[in-house]
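A quick word before the example. In earlier lectures we treated sequence and structure as two separate objects. From today on, think of them as two lines of the same record. Here is DUF1016 domain-containing protein written that way.
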Amino acid sequence: MPKPIKNISSDFEQVILLITEARNRVYSKANAELVLLYFNIGKIVSEKVSLGNWGDGTVNDLADFITEKQPLLKGFNRRGLYRMKQFYEVYSDEEIVSPLMTQLSNEKVSPVVTQMENLVQRFCDKILSKISWTHHLLILSKTKSIEEKLFYLNQCLNEKLSKRELERQLNSAAIERTMLGNKFSNAITSKLPTGIFKDPYVFEFLALPEIHSEDDLQHALIKNLQNFILEMGKGFTYMGSEYRLQVGNKDYYTDLLFYHRDLQCMVLFELKIEEFQPEFLGKLNFYLEALDRDVKRPHENPSIGILLCKGKDEEVVEYALSRNISPALIADYETKLIDKKLLAEKLHQLSEIFYRNEQ
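And the structure line, produced from the sequence above:
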């Protein structure tokens, strides 16, 4: 009689893990080859059209020729070929590729690079091939400036965004809100890192009524924690709500406490359903001090506080934060998606406020 096999379940799981990892490697390699193929086809079409060798009718003829020779292939119609052409043209400009290589791959581009073609090919291999063609199409169709493209390429690379997650970032104007958060924090304090926090935050997934309580907001965010973390960024890890802090003989409870892996610090979100008032900062600073004294570990950085308010006067916030010691951000929150034009106007107004104060 054979002996019973021990840990057979874990053995089976190990086999499944090997299959999954191999499948992911195959998918990654296939995607890289597909993106490189589209880039190289786009190069041919772009160069032929720019030299006047091909016209619009020739591109149609090419689409028909591919269909005739490879009838099972998808995506090589006239529209698809022009998308490949656009893809190549956007990411083959030296003024674009050099800074993108530096920022996205941390590779310093030498001014002595002998051939621009080599630089473009290296950029395609190191950056573009790491992102799926579906993601590229979304970024190409929903962004205008190269700054926007850089931002969302970076998001895809660093946060491994799914198609749905990228669509939400694009539709909720993540770059504009990140720029607002950066501009405000840079103008007031150098204590906050750039590119991490947004202003305003958008919680359209909560389905909250226009009139709601702070408890309603807190419970809805906890219930939709996955979407909340997606809105904040994937570096955040949830530590708890109503986190207890004991100071003296009293207990105090924070709203939502997170840990940021890259920043190596705790991030406290305090929720207000009214417009920002200067006295809110006192309570926030008290909580941050308690966290740093009693919870923070020696190797960790000082805690950061985010006050989420239902509206704010930028000048009032600027006055309130000008002498604030703790790293803190006062941000709006919205329960519906925001028009990008409104965010652009807000960015312009914020710039004017700080410009006047500098005079």
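Notice the following. The mean pLDDT is 85. We will return to this example when we discuss secondary structure assignment.
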